[in-house]
Amino acid sequence: MGFDYAQNLIRRSRLIMPANERKYVEKAHLRNADAVVLDLEDSVPVSEKVATRTVLKEAIPLVGRGGSDVLVRVNHTNELLRGDVEASVWPGLDGIFFPKVETGAQVRALDEFLSELEKKRGIPHSHVKISVIAETLKGYLNVQEITGASERIDSLSLGTEDFATNTGMELSEATYHGWLIPRMQIVFVARAYGKLPLNLLGSMAGFNDTAGFEKMALLSYKHGFLGSSCIHPGNVEILNKCFSPTQEAIEYSRKLIDAFEQSLAAGRASAALDGRMIDYPHYEKAKQILTRSAKIEVLEQKKKSAQKAATGG
User: How far, in Å, CA of 157 to CA of 203, rounded?
Assistant: First the structure.
């Protein structure tokens, strides 16, 4: 397996915005999202999709000046895909948000095209990553093949709304347990292949219910997801908080590491901490929490400095 994105990439919040709305693009760098997605797909009317391509070259550095990674969500259709990708790949782009993926062959074809465009436009090879979204039953059933199809893939998600339409499943509390099956499969496959599992255990459409959104994000983190997309800037800081280790978890991890390392020094590979047994799996988990916390701190400082420079502050 190649680079382990699940351990090394921080992308708690992925803010999706219509690329054809200039007012949103100009303010994107102030949102503090870990990643901003310029959308050519669902939020852009069919009549404006091709014309919107022309704004991308200028929009990419605009939204990225606040330190966020920049992605473009393309239209995965025979008529639009190639033109969308060609219009998207410019210096400053970090990834293609690839919806409705159904086969590994589709990913490999995109990978090859990205290599051509990177060479043509002076971008380091394999700099532009692929964020995969399974949104149909066929894509979901092929998710392992898809995830293993390219080293460019950095994350894996389930497109909840489209998947609900394709499967006939309702999105409600009554169907929560049924939805755990495909959602947890995304977590398991992503982590097995070293990709970021990005999703909520529910729909991101209810962005105005901030208390409910936060509860859902916290639950998603507990189920193994490491971030999520959102469609409203007001949800960004909720995601940043909920997909970060709490101060309590950080302090306990430090305490656990200290106790276990003292035990190792005494020749024992287990110890008691707060009435519970700890051993190597607990030790490794604690180290992961501290590593993630440190990477989040570095990213936040990067974004803070970039935003300050962009606003002249």
Answer: 13
Whole-number Cα distances in Å, 57 to 34, 43, 277: 20, 19, 55
CB count in 10 Å sphere of residue 280:
11
How many Cβ atoms sit within 10 Å of the Cβ of residue 275? 5
> If we measure between CA atoms, which residue out of 96, 179, 182 comes closest to residue 137?
182
In 3D space, the residue among 74, 78, 116, 115 whose CA is nearest the CA of residue 98 turns out to be: 74
Q: How many domains in the chain?
A: 2
Task: Please say whether the beta carbons of 242 and 218 come within 8 A.
Answer: yes
pLDDT in tens, 18-73: 999 999 999 999 999 999 999 999 999 999 999 999 999 999 999 999 999 999 99
Interval 234-250: pLDDT, tens: 999 999 999 999 999 99
* Integer Cα distance of 118 and 86 in angstroms: 10
Range of the domain at 290: 247-311
Q: Which of 312, 228, 238, 308 is nearest to 66 (CA)?
A: 308
* Residue 83 and residue 23 in one domain: yes
CATH number at residue 122: 3.20.20.60
Same domain for 212 and 168, yes or no, is: yes
Most confident of 120-124, 170-174, 209-213: 120-124
Closest CA to 159 of 16, 6, 271: 16
- Spell out the residues 6+ positions from residue 207 whose beta carbon is closer than 8 angstroms to its own: 213, 230, 231, 232, 234, 235
Reported pTM = 0.94
